[in-house]
Design brief:
Elements: E1 4-6, E2 23-27, H1 32-41, E3 44-48, E4 51-55, E5 60-63, H2 75-88, E6 93-94, E7 97-101, H3 105-114, H4 127-138, E8 142-149, E9 152-162, E10 165-173, H5 178-192, E11 197-201, H6 205-208, E12 213-215, H7 217-227
Parallel strand pairs: 1-2, 10-11
Antiparallel strand pairs: 2-4, 3-4, 5-11, 5-12, 6-7, 7-8, 8-9, 9-10
Length: about 230
């Protein structure tokens, strides 16, 4: 197979032509129009060096909100947080943590960019990516969830929401368990909003512990056709 080179015209080759590792194309740009087409098609960007690489792996790692699992180790923390929230009588405050949405998108993506991760020498979130997704946020497509402690942003995540699908992009935590807290709270919110599928892109043990699992790419793209108007 060949890797396709994208030019100014906004289109993508069929996803079944991707390489075995999921690599489909290289080049193009991160304009809102191209990003929207990519996500609707089951494709996501990932930088390597100066080049934009476009991926659509098979199988695809996803989470169905109703299948969310909360581990035994995290349940006591959540119960403690919820009890503290009830005692405080504050809707958004929980045991010193406050959960918000879309309050600090730029800060969230910037901290995701700066967070060092085991096994990674750098980050795929370049300055261009950061700018592009901030634009997507301004247009109403990119969303964030935040966790605060004493007014400081200590955890969060962001992604793209289209129709009944949320495409998760990245998360960070400054304090142990804050990204878990943000993820669990946000999945509950997404479920209430009618989101039926969360795209986790590629396998991680971290998200598998929450109930994420692999599905066939054909099945994944079929879900996108059904859930994104």
């Amino acid at each position: 197979m060949s890797i396709f080179i994208l030019e100014k015209e906004i289109n993508f080759p069929p996803v079944h032509l991707a390489e075995p590792d999921g690599l489909l194309a290289i080049g193009g740009d991160l304009s809102p129009e191209r990003l929207l087409l990519a996500y609707r098609s089951g494709i996501f960007p990932w930088y390597e060096g100066e080049h934009i690489l476009w991926w659509c792996p098979d199988p695809r790692f996803v989470l169905f909100p109703e299948e969310l699992k909360i581990s035994k180790s995290i349940k006591p923390l959540l119960k403690k947080i919820e009890l503290a929230r009830l005692l405080a009588g504050q809707a958004g405050s929980a045991g010193g943590f406050e959960f918000t949405m879309n309050k600090a998108f730029k800060e969230v993506i910037h901290l995701c960019k700066k967070t060092k991760r085991p096994g990674q020498d750098g980050t795929w979130i370049t300055d261009e990516v950061e700018k592009a997704y901030c634009t997507m946020h301004e247009l109403g497509y990119a969303h964030s969830a935040e966790v605060w402690q004493n007014g400081e942003l200590v955890g969060g995540l962001y992604g793209i929401k289209l129709g009944k699908v949320f495409f998760g992009e990245s998360m960070f935590s400054k304090i142990s368990n804050t990204s878990r807290f943000a993820f669990i709270k946000y999945v509950h919110v997404l479920k209430e909003e009618g989101i039926e599928l969360i795209d986790c892109q590629v396998y991680t043990e971290y998200l598998e512990n929450f109930g994420a699992r692999m599905i066939d790419r054909k099945e994944f793209t079929k879900y996108l056709q059904q859930l994104i108007s």
